[in-house]
Write a structure and sequence with these properties.
With 228 residues, the chain is α/β, with parallel strands linked by helices. Helix content is 34%, strand content 26%. The longest helix is centred in the last third of the chain and has 19 residues.
């Protein structure tokens, strides 16, 4: 069994929190000295959250957005918000790159000196097949715009604007995968002929939470992970 401090030490390194401002790093949200054998993972507190904790005998929690957590709930909580979004959803996410068989992944787009996405190469395929892969990985997607029969390079980005679309197109990207389609970038999409797949913000977060459970199981073979 591990302690909350051990968990934080590992996650701080995994999320590379030193590259974030202190107020964005995350860490301990509610301190506890309880040993952790069963760790609950959730995006945010939900209805009857206390019953879920009790029924699954959860020792501690990882919560992406803990802001609505009941202050009376007596349990240790760790949280990572921005680092989780940028590294386990649609950012420079090497675990997602593996799922997509993306090679030669390079950072793309920057915010405060950090990459907010990546560009890489995939086996030649149609945009329809690319959409199918996204559906398989994320369990669906919100929309897909444009078509191409010869997709070789894609961008996966946690943001979308005119500048990013044009920059991706200039680097030979045929498909741009993001969480939410931004109408302000529509003109650039049409002018460049870019195909865009809008995954949906919640789907990206759910995938990230499952990916995190795998990371933690790889580190602690006896740790029991309970996903909300």
């Amino acid at each position: 069994m591990m302690t909350q401090e051990t968990l934080i030490e590992f996650l701080d390194r995994f999320f590379q929190v030193d590259q974030y401002p202190k107020e964005e790093r995350g860490g301990i949200y509610r301190k506890s000295d309880r040993l952790i054998q069963r760790l609950g993972l959730a995006l945010e507190p939900t209805l009857n959250f206390d019953l879920w904790i009790t029924n699954h005998r959860v020792d501690a929690l990882f919560i992406h957005r803990p802001w609505q957590l009941d202050p009376e709930l007596d349990i240790g909580v760790v949280f990572y918000h921005l680092p989780f979004d940028e590294q386990l959803t649609l950012g420079f996410n090497l675990r997602l790159a593996e799922a997509l068989t993306l090679v030669n992944a390079k950072p793309f787009g920057h915010k405060a000196g950090r990459a907010i996405g990546m560009i890489g190469e995939i086996p030649p395929q149609s945009s329809d097949r690319c959409c199918g892969q996204i559906r398989d990985i994320f369990g669906g997607y919100e929309s897909a715009i444009g078509q191409s029969e010869a997709v070789r390079k894609i961008a996966i980005v946690g943001a979308m604007n005119e500048s990013l679309i044009r920059s991706a197109a200039a680097q030979g990207v045929e498909v741009y995968i993001t969480g939410q389609f931004r109408t302000s970038a529509k003109a650039a999409v049409l002018e460049t002929g870019m195909c865009v797949i809008e995954v949906g913000h919640h789907r990206c977060e759910q995938w990230g939470l499952k990916a995190l459970s795998g990371v933690l199981r790889e580190r602690w073979s006896k740790l029991q992970i309970i996903l909300l």
